[in-house]
Design brief:
This protein is α/β, with parallel strands linked by helices and 479 residues long. It folds into three domains: 2-71, no CATH class; 74-188 and 423-462, Nucleotidyltransferase, domain 5 (2-Layer Sandwich), CATH 3.30.420.10; 195-379, no CATH class. The chain has 22 helices and five strands. Strands 3-2-1-4-5 form a five-stranded mixed beta sheet, sandwiched between helices. The longest helix has 24 residues, at 2-25. It is globular and about 80 Å long.
């Protein structure tokens, strides 16, 4: 009996461990019984013996079992997070649509613990019907009531600038301010960067649109894509495919233009062979010079955008990166005004080898950079003020947040003031990353899946309390 009891306990523990792996890998629940268990049995029988293989068969890994395990782990993670939310925390919210057409609202929280600032997922809730500010508020407020959280403890909230979030009368922020007038709203820094870099002059916009039309002519037609790929292979190109443009993807423009520029000889040959009117564009040196500039500037914007992404980011950190970019943009503008284009390598190489009207190129670039800098300042009006407030913060032996949590223990008011600036989310990156995970978890084959606990278990950085969960469960081997 003792041996059977021990085997059952180990099988239960193994079952939870495998369920956590399945959740983290964002795989269907059936993979445990259909693939992982048979593979483990084969490995045990081959490397060990049949007795070990038979023991592994006692681990319960059915579809329903894995589902229950993930539900319990997701619930435990939320309980831990809620238990750590004290007097003050910040909230990050974003909404997206899953594969079945349901609107999903994801929330992350950031709070001060004993030694640092931590951030964790709080919930993923479906929005039934409309996605207005009032509907979003009702879902969030319902979650707050369920978890026993007070709006007075929510010091800040970070969202995008959609009308449902920022509407003066019925927007989410306005509705939250009725519950807590002191709550601070932060417009996602990454969204602001994307909006600021989106506008351009009609001349450059025409170049971008023409480039997209060329790409679509080749890429969106399967036969053309295959013929173009063969042409690239015959011409010895490093890449054999163009990239499709996607407006909602922040890095799309830089990537598609760089690939088009790299394959411009192959594209020109293909368009000429198919008698496309766009073939003449790749003989126009002025048009190609503008394409080179767009590829260069969007590459630099992509570098900025990528640097703004990631976990544990603060307003101070992201504003420093945006401020650094603006200083560089000002230097680029001054250099280009003197017809020095070395800051844009692809454009500089092209101008060095082709006969192009440099004065005309200079005017277009200076005008675009001037407008770009103005747009960034309009979307970041408080950047200089924030930098001045936080510029005196220094640390050497630990992270910025850890330093001020430590300072607060001895100098409460000063530490509290610093943490008030560091606690708010600076972007909705965590929500966006969760939506990427959502597309892997909820697929066409799993369109009826209840998403919340699966997503929480998959993206949570806080591990479930396995010993507690197992102690509350009944050990039972698989038959």
């Amino acid at each position: 009996m003792r041996k059977a009891s021990t085997t059952s306990a180990k099988a239960l523990e193994a079952s939870y461990a495998v369920a956590l792996l399945v959740a983290k890998a964002k795989k269907p629940f059936t993979i445990a019984e259909d693939l992982l268990l048979p593979a483990a049995v084969v490995l045990a029988e081959t490397m060990l013996d049949k007795r070990a293989a038979e023991t592994l068969k006692t681990v319960p890994l059915s579809n329903d079992t894995i589902c229950r395990r993930i539900e319990k782990m997701g619930t435990d993670i939320v309980e831990q997070v809620v238990g750590k939310l004290s007097d003050s925390f910040s909230l990050q919210l974003d909404e997206s649509t899953d594969v079945s057409g349901n609107a999903q609202l994801v929330a992350f929280v950031r709070y001060v613990d004993t030694d640092d600032i931590y951030e964790h997922i709080l919930f993923c809730k479906s929005l039934e019907g409309k996605t207005t500010g009032e509907d979003i508020f009702n879902v969030v407020n319902g979650a707050f009531c369920e978890y026993g959280l007070s709006w007075k403890s929510c010091s800040s909230i970070c969202t995008d600038a959609a009308a449902s979030m920022t509407g003066r009368a019925k927007g989410l922020i306005a509705r939250i301010k009725k519950e807590n007038p002191d709550v601070m709203w932060t417009h996602c820094v990454i969204h602001r960067e994307a909006l600021a870099s989106k506008k351009m002059s009609p001349v450059l916009h025409d170049v971008l649109n023409s480039s997209i039309k060329v790409i679509n002519f080749i890429k969106s037609r399967p036969l053309n894509a295959r013929l173009f790929s063969r042409l690239c292979e015959n011409m010895g190109a490093e890449h054999t495919q163009l990239l499709l443009h996607t407006e909602v993807r922040w890095l799309s423009r830089g990537k598609i233009l760089n690939r088009l520029l790299e394959l411009r000889s192959e594209v020109h040959a293909f368009l000429t062979e198919h008698r496309s009117p766009h073939a003449t564009l790749f003989q126009d040196t002025d048009w190609l010079a503008k394409l080179c500039y767009l590829a260069d500037i969007f590459s630099k914007l992509n570098e900025l955008n990528t640097s703004l992404q990631g976990k544990n980011s603060s307003i101070l950190n992201l504003y420093d990166k945006v401020g650094g970019f603006l200083k560089k943009a000002e230097l680029w503008r001054r250099a280009c005004a003197q017809e020095d284009f070395t800051c844009f390598p692809q454009l500089d190489d092209f101008l060095s080898s082709e006969d192009v009207d440099r004065a005309q190129v200079k005017l277009i670039i200076v005008e675009h950079l001037t407008k770009l800098i103005q747009d960034f300042h309009s979307y970041f009006p408080d950047m200089e003020e924030k930098s001045a407030q936080l510029d005196w913060m220094k640390f050497s032996m630990c992270t910025l947040s850890q330093f001020w949590v430590y300072v607060k223990q001895e100098h409460h008011d000063m530490g509290q003031k610093a943490l008030e600036q560091l606690l708010p989310f600076a972007s909705t990156y965590l929500c966006e990353a969760s939506f990427s995970a959502m597309t892997l978890i909820k697929t066409k084959q799993r369109s009826r899946l209840c998403l919340e606990k699966c997503l929480i278990t998959a993206v949570a950085s806080l591990p479930p309390r396995m010993k507690k969960i197992i102690s509350e469960a009944q050990a039972q081997v698989s038959h």
